[in-house]
Amino acid sequence: MSAAEINCPTCARALPATSKFCGFDGTDLSLAKEGQASRKVCSVCGRFYPGYASFCAFDRSSLQVMKTQRELNQTSSGEFDGTQSVETQIVPVLPPATSTAQIAADDRLLGADSEAPYSDLIGKTIDKKYLIQSVLGEGGMAVVYRAHHVQMERTVVIKVMQGWLLSNRNSVERFERECKLTAKLNHPNIVSVYDVGLINGKEPYLVMEYIKGESLADKIHNSGALPYATTANIIIQICRGLQEAHTSGIIHRDLKPDNVLLQHKSDRPDWVKIVDFGISNFVHGSKKLTKTGRMVGTPEYIAPEQLKDRPIDMRTDLYGIGIMMFEMLTGRVPFDGESAESILMKHLLEDAPTMAEVRPELAENNLFQPIVDKLLKKNPDDRYQTATELRLDVEHALNAVLLKKGASS
User: Fold this and answer.
1) Is 207:193 a contact under the CB 8 Å cutoff?
2) Whole-number Å distance between alpha carbons of 120 and 122
3) C-beta neighbour count of 88 within 10 angstroms
4) Helix, strand or coil for residue 39?
5) Into how many domains does the chain fold?
6) Pairing relation of β-strands 203-209 and 193-199?
7) Dist CA 234 CA 232 (whole Å)
8) What does R_g of the chain's alpha carbons equal in angstroms?
9) Which is catalytic among the residues 25, 218, 254, 317?
10) Domain range spanning residue 173?
11) Which of 110, 152, 359, 361 fits a disulfide with 135 by CB distance 3.0 to 4.6 angstroms?
């Protein structure tokens, strides 16, 4: 290697010394320097990332903090007395979970004093109209900011592609496709897109409406199992938004509580907005931007056909709704495990437990159990075939619950 080159710490390829990111695997090349204190590794593919990253851009796995054995000894004993091992073996430690749905919570904003390099945008104005105010969250694909539209005087959300992905053509195409797909959708239950553009002529960004409220994931976490009526009202709205997407030939592919925001409107606290169409695709004729055999989705909510590399369609999204419905009514997902692999095998081979096995009080007159059972069928042909068909059954079950409640009061 010449003096004008640097080795990528992930793939070991020689690159120009002036390079900031590896063009082969997206690694931040500052990690090649000795003494780098903050870096993370993907436990699935082994790629290294800067310390501020939360997800692997290639397989969407959560990244793990890298610590030395010495640091672990200090942590476990409270102090380092010189007798513990001082080996520099790298050991992964799981970081706290990060959710893309943080864009909905005002009290989680990171200020301009954040150590993350993306805080450099805070206080700057993009394209002479978007004043960046704070960081709202981060995902494997993008950093999400709260901004102020200076001409229209309204708050917006700006999604900026992660810097280390700019050299990866597939990632850029995926981000651009998300912009185009989301902009095609115009429905009260889908987040609205206002604008797209480039920062410094190279970093793509997407401008969306700002949703004041909370994610469905946060609601379940804070409240536990939800009542029948609340669950049904949320599912009905999700179905309406999904039907609009499906009618346009767009499948979400990663439906989960993190991607459902509950907007606090004046007349109701649970107006649904579906977000994050980042891995969505067209039902017909779309160019595949993920490699064959690569899982796309979240283990707890992924449909069996996604694990078999078979064609997917709108019924894949309906399976995700079934998982969410089970979780909303019981407070936990039907398939769980110590590893992603164990969860995925359960999706493939095991029947979901009944809701009464988790919450015995749901055993009597549970009109939603047959709906969840049908949604979670392994064979897509045995599920509901459209979001509208599902919505009608949920509405029917909700009406029955309300009538029974009215009769008993």
Assistant:
1) yes
2) 6
3) 9
4) strand
5) 3
6) antiparallel
7) 5
8) 23
9) 254
10) 100-209
11) 110
Q: What is the DSSP string of 225-260?
A: SPPHHHHHHHHHHHHHHHHHHHHTTEE-S---GGGE
Token duo for residue 54 = 């939360």
C-beta separation of 69 from 89 below 8 A: yes
- In sequence order, what E strands does 309-370 have? none
The residue type of 375 is: L
Same domain, 273 and 377: yes
Question: What are 188-217's pLDDT values in tens digits?
Answer: 999 988 998 888 888 888 899 998 889 999
Residues with Cβ within 8 Å of 92's Cβ and at least 6 positions away in sequence, in order, are 41, 43, 64, 65, 66, 67
- The amino acid at residue 255 is L
Q: Which of 203, 204, 199, 211 is nearest to 129 (CA)?
A: 199
| 319 and 369 share one domain | yes
Q: Are residues 246 and 149 in the same domain?
A: no
Q: Are 192 and 209 in contact (CB under 8 A)?
A: yes
Domain boundary among 93, 115, 149: 93
Q: What are phi and psi of 88, to 5 degrees?
A: -100, 30
| pLDDT per position as a tens digit, 309-354 | 778 899 999 999 999 999 999 999 999 988 888 899 999 999 999 9
Question: In this structure, what token pair is assigned to residue 364?
Answer: 């009597």
Active site residue 81: no
Full-model pTM: 0.68
Cβ–Cβ < 8 Å for 56, 48? no
CA angle 260, 278, 297 (to 5 degrees): 75
